[in-house]
Write a structure and sequence with these properties.
Elements (H helix, E strand, L loop, with lengths): L14 H12 L2 E3 L2 E2 H28 L1
Length: 64
């Protein structure tokens, strides 16, 4: 939104109810100093690398 106003019909979501259990799960240690968040970030980064490699491969094959 451009203007920081709230309309009378908006519904607010109590974020601590949702975010506190989520952060507890993400900060859960699987091993010493190895959290669930690190595993998810690693999977995300691997997906980005694979996607970039496929994209570069498509560009190379299109130019041929």
């Amino acid at each position: 939104m451009i203007f920081p106003i709230e309309f009378p019909f908006t519904k607010t979501i109590p974020l601590p109810v949702i975010m506190n259990p989520l952060m507890d799960f993400l900060n859960y240690e699987l091993l010493s100093q190895f959290k669930v968040m690190y595993v998810l970030l690693f999977i995300w980064i691997i997906g980005i690398v694979i996607g970039c490699l496929k994209w570069i491969g498509n560009i190379i094959s299109t130019k041929k």
